[in-house]
Fold these 2 entries.
Entry 1:
Amino acid sequence: MASSRELVRIVSIQKSPIIHLFGESIAGAATIRGFGQEKRFMKRNLYLLDYFQPLFLLSAWYYLSAFPMEVLIPVSISF
């Protein structure tokens, strides 16, 4: 299960720019609206989602391909 922990760490690192900007946007929503910067923040959020999605899909593929190996190797060794 070490690869599962590693995957969780990688996904967390990849999501951190998105989560950070989203948290800032919520915390400063009144200021963003006050200065009329909604479009800029929306574009930035959409860019980050588009940019980091392939990395997330790659790490999800890694998890799905590595998990069966973690299960099958000990089972095949035990027989």
Entry 2:
Amino acid sequence: MNILAIGDIVGEIGVKKIVKELPKLKEKYDIDFCIINGENSAGGMGITKKIFDSLINAGADVILSLIHIWRCRRSHKCR
């Protein structure tokens, strides 16, 4: 089993890059499972449902978060 773990994605540029490149990486390296740290993806302050959905649709299987997720009030809409 091939597992890909991606560290902190920060801001719109980071999200766009992952959304663009993740499907290619998964195919190239035959990735079975992808874990992404998304807690700073909304400009370094949490994650939004839109970002969450775009990362899942790009091929993430798990999106991690720690305490930073609660910095963005929009994050509460993900629950």
